[in-house]
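User: Second chain of the day. Same drill as before.
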Amino acid sequence: MGAPPLDRDSSDLQVTWGGHATVLIEIDGVRLVTDPVLRSRVVHLRRQVPDPGTAFIEGIDAVLISHLHFDHLDIPTLKRFDRGVKVIVPGGAGPMIRKHGFREVIELMEGEATEVGPVTVLAVPADHDGRRHPFGMEIDAIGFVVEGSRRILFAGDTDLHPRLGELADSLEVALLPIWGWGHRLGPGHMDPRGAAQAAATLRPKITVPIHWGTYFPIGMKGIRGALLEKPVKAFEQQMEEIAPGLEIEVLRPGESLSRPAASS
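Assistant: Same format as last time:
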């Protein structure tokens, strides 16, 4: 079930998928979690895979929130974290987080960056409606590039967009959304073909598909089985067609990808 946790003094890189858009990134002794959503039920969605456990909550240096949708910013999950953890959010979303007692909330607009120990977290563009539905604030969605000894892209929730190619600079890992929840996608999402096109543009050393196979609407149990697995199989096929030769790593919730530090 994946690799063991990193030594916090290590310069190795480890990426562990928690399901949906929740990823634990361990790099240069820093532990970052993206869009943590770990509950068994979120609004009308039920989790179809196990909770990956406390490794995604304890000893975290920063939480990265890409946008305000309920399946990316889940306040009950966020409240499991120590209130002293740094929370990095899109510009304008800070008050929503601070009112829950978090003391260090960093708002980033596209192109802005902040430091988490030796690691830089840069906000990058995303093509997605990031407001809190149905009547919430209109806050732009973002993705993140995490850069230390290696560069990792967490694309957030996004469709293909013309500026994606600007991020194609020596990426070690690209965490790309390939689906969503349910049986169809709305606007502002990559499908398996779109994600393969993104990988072909970015040309990372490894592409890890995320945002699939985790949550499914309550009441649609009869059709969920194939639909939970179909996106990742389609993505593998599209990668063979559009981006042959690029490495992909399909993880299951709780599984990890480890990349050792480059030897000197």
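Residues 224-242 form the longest helix (19 residues).

User: Great, on to the next one.
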